[in-house]
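hey
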C-alpha cells in the first residue's frame, strides 16, 4: 500500500491527486462541483468521478489513505450526505480510511509544511482561519456575500456597482456599465437586482485592472478590500506562518500586493497556497511515512515554502 489520495473540492470543481509515499504524483483529474452544502449528495458523486479518473491504471488496493479537503464540510454531518460519501469511497474499491477536512486546511497545507499558523483566503468569498495541528480552531468571516466575505471578489464587484450607480460619469462606472451592457444607471440597477452573481464576480478583475491603471475609485475599492482582509486576519491572529489562498491572493493582483506589503511591514512569515489537492495527498501520507514530511511536502506541492516576507521598502 504505497499510494494516497488527496482531494480539493469546492463550488466550482473537484480536483483529485493520487501520489506515492515517495512524493511522485501518479494521477490527476478534475470533475464537477464538490461542495455538499450547495450540491448535497451529488457532491460525493463529483468527487468520486475525479478520484476514479485520477486512479486510472492504479490498483485501489495500493491506496493506504485519503484526505478530502471539502468546502461546506458542515453538511457532511447530514446522514444522507455522510452515507453518500461513504458509498462513494466504497464504490471506488477503497478500503483505507477516508478523512474529510475543511478546504481551508488543505489550502493552508498547500502553502507551508508547518502544522500551525493561519490561512487568509480571498476568491469569490473571503475567510481567515487559525490552524493548529492541521485543524481549524478559529474562523473569521466566511459568512457569504450577503452577510460578509469582506474584501472578496464578489464584495469588490458589489462595491464597483455601488460606485457606478452613484457616480455614473466616472471612468470606473463606464467600465462597469460596459460589462453589464447597461446604458443608464437605472438599467444597471435593474441588472444588479436580478443578482447575476457570476457576472458580478467578474467585475473584480475589472476593478483590479483599473486600479493598476491608476483609476482612483478602483484603487480606493482595492485599498478598502485590503484593509478588510487584514482585519479578518487579525481576528484570528497567530504567530505562525500566514498562507494566502484564493485567486485574489495567489494571482498577480493589487489586492495581493497590498496584503503582502502589510504582512512584510509586520515581519510575518508568509506562504502562497499551491495545489491544495496535492497538499491533501501530503496530509494523507504524513502519518504513513517515517521520513521528513517537509521534503515530501516540497516534492508534492512543487511550490515555494513559507518564507519571511520581503522587508518593506522605506
Amino acid at each position: 500500500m504505497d499510494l494516497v489520495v488527496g482531494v480539493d473540492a469546492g463550488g466550482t470543481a473537484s480536483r483529485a491527486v493520487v501520489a506515492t509515499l515517495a512524493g511522485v504524483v501518479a494521477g490527476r483529474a478534475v470533475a464537477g462541483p464538490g461542495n455538499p452544502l450547495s450540491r448535497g449528495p451529488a457532491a460525493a458523486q463529483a468527487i468520486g468521478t475525479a478520484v476514479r479518473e485520477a486512479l486510472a491504471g492504479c490498483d485501489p488496493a495500493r491506496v493506504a489513505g485519503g484526505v478530502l479537503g471539502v468546502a461546506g464540510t458542515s453538511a457532511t454531518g447530514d446522514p444522507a450526505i455522510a452515507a453518500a460519501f461513504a458509498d462513494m469511497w466504497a464504490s471506488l474499491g477503497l478500503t483505507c480510511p477516508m478523512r474529510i477536512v475543511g478546504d481551508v486546511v488543505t489550502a493552508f497545507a498547500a502553502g507551508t509544511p508547518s502544522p500551525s499558523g493561519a490561512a487568509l483566503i480571498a476568491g469569490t468569498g473571503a475567510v481567515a482561519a487559525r490552524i493548529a495541528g492541521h485543524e481549524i480552531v478559529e474562523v473569521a468571516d466566511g459568512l457569504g456575500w450577503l452577510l460578509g466575505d469582506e474584501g472578496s471578489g464578489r464584495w469588490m464587484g458589489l462595491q464597483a456597482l455601488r460606485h457606478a450607480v452613484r457616480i455614473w460619469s466616472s471612468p470606473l462606472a463606464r467600465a462597469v456599465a460596459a460589462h453589464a451592457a447597461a446604458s443608464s444607471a437605472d438599467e444597471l440597477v435593474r441588472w444588479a437586482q436580478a443578482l447575476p452573481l457570476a457576472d458580478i464576480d467578474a467585475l473584480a478583475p475589472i476593478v483590479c485592472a483599473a486600479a493598476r491603471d491608476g483609476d482612483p475609485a478602483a484603487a480606493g475599492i482595492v485599498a478598502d478590500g485590503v484593509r478588510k482582509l487584514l482585519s479578518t486576519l487579525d481576528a484570528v491572529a497567530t504567530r505562525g506562518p500566514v498562507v494566502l489562498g484564493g485567486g485574489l491572493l495567489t494571482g498577480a493582483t493589487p489586492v495581493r500586493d497590498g496584503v503582502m506589503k502589510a504582512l512584510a511591514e509586520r515581519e510575518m512569515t508568509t506562504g502562497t497556497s499551491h495545489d491544495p489537492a496535492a497538499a491533501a495527498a501530503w496530509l494523507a501520507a504524513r502519518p504513513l511515512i517515517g521520513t521528513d514530511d517537509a521534503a515530501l511536502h516540497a516534492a508534492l506541492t512543487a511550490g515555494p515554502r513559507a518564507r519571511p516576507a520581503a522587508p518593506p521598502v522605506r
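The chain is about 45% helix and 20% strand. The chain has two domains: 3-111+274-307, 116-271.
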